[in-house]
Specification:
Elements: E1 10-13, E2 33-38, E3 56-62, E4 74-75, E5 86-87, E6 100-113, E7 116-122, E8 131-137, H1 140-143, E9 162-165, H2 167-175, H3 182-191, H4 197-200, E10 206-212, E11 215-222, E12 225-233
Parallel strand pairs: 9-12
Antiparallel strand pairs: 1-2, 1-8, 2-7, 3-6, 3-8, 4-5, 6-7, 10-11, 11-12
The structure holds S-adenosyl-L-homocysteine.
Length: 234
């Protein structure tokens, strides 16, 4: 009686092609646009009728990439520098029993194109291919709590990181027109300082790479300065 079977109602198409550099919560990088593509059983306009009256929605999803890696009772939240430990249920860690995630995201629109129903979303923190298990409208009168307190995660994580682009990176951005927000998108992803906590404590220049959409992006970090060295097609 305590085991359940859950099936995805759809999947996410996201610019984030690997876990590294995805923001740790939704809405931190508003330029992150995604599509929720409904599975065949739910590919009917009736399922979302009325949803266009809402500006934001809750997504419940499966941390599918790490779901088979298990969980432990205590985790080290990145914002505590990777040192202090908290109970897994006191955090939004991905490694948790049942591997279920939840994100409140902006609903930009509903699309029904060539027989495929999709939701257009922004501000997402989800990996490409993430299975969605439920969708609910965000209800400000109940979900937004102005008196809420949040202990070790009381405010939006702020960094002092600056982001600069090499001439090659700027030229690459300029020669494409498909993603008008690309410069701001990369800037805001890097401003989050996606490095693991132990790397932030190291001196010297560090090199990193990530894939956003179908672009390989390389950058270097020195203290609080990011330099995007190159952008190439994958
Ligand atoms: N807002 C969610 C997610 C918080 S954790 C919640 O509170 O439940 C956010 C991290 O989840 C991201 O930084 C990314 O690294 C990771 N992530 C996103 N989609 C994932 C997926 N499908 N599988 C595993 N990890 C994922």
């Amino acid at each position: 009686m305590n085991d359940y079977q859950i099936s995805a109602i759809g999947h996410i198409q996201s610019p984030y092609k690997q876990k590294f550099a995805i923001p740790r919560q939704p809405r931190l990088v508003p330029q992150a646009k995604a599509k929720l593509v409904f599975s065949a059983d739910f590919n009917r306009e009736e399922f979302v009728r009325g949803l266009d009256e809402f500006s934001h929605i809750w997504l419940l999803f499966r941390f599918h990439e790490t779901a088979d890696k298990g969980y432990s009772a205590m985790v080290r939240p990145p914002r505590l520098g990777g040192n202090a430990r908290k109970g897994v249920f006191a955090t939004r860690a991905t490694f948790r029993p049942n591997a279920i995630g939840m994100s409140a995201v902006k609903l930009e629109g509903i699309e029904y194109l060539n027989g495929q129903l999709s939701l257009l979303l922004s501000g997402i923190d989800l990996l490409d291919g993430t299975p969605i298990i439920d969708i609910k409208p965000y209800l400000p009168y109940s979900d937004a709590m102005s008196d809420a307190t949040a202990g070790f995660a009381d405010s939006r994580p702020e960094t002092q990181m600056t982001v600069e682009f090499s001439p090659q990176a700027l030229a690459f951005i300029a020669q494409q027109s498909h993603y008008p927000d690309l410069h701001a998108f990369i800037t805001n992803v890097l401003k989050q300082d996606p490095r693991p906590a132990y790397k932030k404590q190291q001196d010297g220049t560090q090199s990193y790479g990530m894939t956003l959409y179908d672009f390989n992006i390389n950058w270097q970090v020195n203290e609080s300065h990011n330099l995007v060295t190159s952008i190439e097609n994958t």
